[in-house]
Amino acid sequence: MSSIKQKSITLHDVAREAGVSLITASRALGNPDRVSEKTVARVQAAADAIGYIPNLLAGGLKSRRSRTVAALVPIISVQQFLPTIEALTAMLDREGYQLLLGQTGYDRAREAALLNSMVGRQVDGIVMAGLLDDTPAKARIRAAGIPVVETWDITDDPFDMLVGFSHLGVGRAVADYFLAKGWTRFGVATGDDKRALIRRQGFVDRIGHDVPTAAVPAPSNLGSGRQAGAELLTKDPSIRAIFCSSDTLAEGVLTEARVRGLRVPEDLAVCGFGGTSFSGHLAPTLTTVHVDGSRIGSEAGRILLARCRGETPEEPFIDVGFRVIERESTAGR
Amino acid sequence: MSSIKQKSITLHDVAREAGVSLITASRALGNPDRVSEKTVARVQAAADAIGYIPNLLAGGLKSRRSRTVAALVPIISVQQFLPTIEALTAMLDREGYQLLLGQTGYDRAREAALLNSMVGRQVDGIVMAGLLDDTPAKARIRAAGIPVVETWDITDDPFDMLVGFSHLGVGRAVADYFLAKGWTRFGVATGDDKRALIRRQGFVDRIGHDVPTAAVPAPSNLGSGRQAGAELLTKDPSIRAIFCSSDTLAEGVLTEARVRGLRVPEDLAVCGFGGTSFSGHLAPTLTTVHVDGSRIGSEAGRILLARCRGETPEEPFIDVGFRVIERESTAGR
DNA sequence: CTGTTAGCGCTTTCAA
DNA sequence: TTGAAAGCGCTAACAG
């Protein structure tokens, strides 16, 4: 197979084949209501017959709409964001938009570079996992007038639109829940990323005093979860309840507890974060803070597409909330 | 923030600012070796000063290179492919390419539609998770001369380039391993996707007779793994060794076995597939078939980029192989 | 080393 | 309802 691209079939060919002008062919395919039904049918037939595929770069150059949206995540393997990406992609696809994926690697220089690259690609919108970092790219995005949706976090000063929830609130809610259960000896197992540390902060604030903490590099995984669990249980064997910054981390703590002969929840209570589907199928089932990542993706897609169509979404600032789901790992009191 | 895009800063502005012609500015930024160092410096300075970001749509229209690559996966939440996507994205990014992500949803009509859309976006290459389905889009891709890398599978008749391994071989290897251990009562827990079923086929072939099988919908998860485990252990309590089509499924089977009071591996041996990082941190640690998904991504990126540069990769058909990693879940004989 | 010319394929604007 | 003209912002090809 040769990599030389033969000259492709253009709208010109379709027009000739259908016996109409270039622009009529364009309209027949793009704005069928502005052309007679008969003509539309003839152009459609011609396009199908010769296998025409419109060049979206050319169209986008003139119309200034690339029908492309950028999504930036730290690393794609951070499972948290997968349902969001999945829902976003599905929603965009339905409207003929495609998703450009970028990985910042938790690095603001790379984030800035990626954003510039996305601006250069004339994306019609940007969805961020998290808040936009304070880089020079910010000004360019504003200058270019590109709609942005920040997600999975909340702030008083959003760049543009936002779909998220309060991580501080999550930490507090878990602390309240633990306190309501009457426990007194707490620990935290956390990834070292910004939002996880904010959840920890909320937890500590509400508990009222500092709490033994094991921090592992983000993204956390089962192995680092076991490690964090081991660290906490070694450092302070009297710990009775552990708040984990992800369900995966929590699974590691559960595993480590089991290996050490600790019963959950009798000897140790464990709470995760994320509300992943697997959390309900562990043994014991895992208490977690559920966040509707899929909804974040579809809401973000919805308000972004609205703005792409030139509308002004009635509510460009959506708090999807969260809820503590009590399961076996903290039950029984 | 308004969605009206003000007229953007173009190369024209840079040229004027630097006091050179348009094309010299273009070369200074794109092919610096064809322009005097002094001019390059001046143009660079001008571009930086006014915050110029090149319009890649415009450049791509003329040069017929969009610096964009499409990656098609069934669903992004199928974890198997994440390391591949991650490595691919990272490699592309280093060369200034971006990744367009598409989800086929295991549906060939959607796959065909997505491929057409990607062709229309003038992608410079396509990476498929799995083999290209036999759709009309195939002919168009060939006609457009777009390089394609099929991954995670193998065939005698690849469309273009390929980086994968034999699923039949995986099934056989696990059967050989089980047989070498001297076991005789087998079961299979599998997702219902094509490649998982081929692995099962290889397993059954080598075992020499049909084997109790629990099939769950792809993508499999911890819950469906527990379900499959329950189904197998109920249907045939004498089962002694289970081959699972993913590590996640295997984790479900391990969990179900534990809940039922079965010891692994004493009462039941379990083997997964994928070689995910978590498999080594379960308790018991999970025997699995390791596949280097990250390498698949980087090799695919490498040969694809080579072709984008007009080179002919010396080896456009790479078998990355696999290997059975023995761990506690099948140890002890 | 630098510049001029001519488009890439499509859609907007204006006119019929 | 249809068409002609005029570019979108950039780069390939050829001159100078």
Give a quick summary of the entry:
The structure is a homodimer of 333-residue chains. Chain A is built from twelve helices and twelve strands.
What does this structure look like?
The structure is a homodimer of 333-residue chains. By secondary structure, chain A is α/β, with parallel strands linked by helices. Chain A has helices at residues 11-18, 22-30, 37-50, 56-63, 82-94, 108-120, 137-144, 167-181, 194-207, 222-235, 247-259, 293-308; strands at 68-73, 98-103, 125-129, 148-151, 161-164, 186-191, 213-216, 241-244, 269-271, 288-290, 317-319, 323-325. Chains A and B meet through helix 4, helix 5, strand 2, helix 6 and helix 7 of A and helix 4, helix 5, strand 2, helix 6 and helix 7 of B. Strand 2 (98-103) of chain A pairs antiparallel with strand 2 (98-103) of chain B, so a sheet runs across the interface. The first copy, chain A, binds a DNA duplex (16 and 16 nucleotides) through residues 8, 10-12, 20-24, 26-27, 30, 34-36, 39, 54-64.
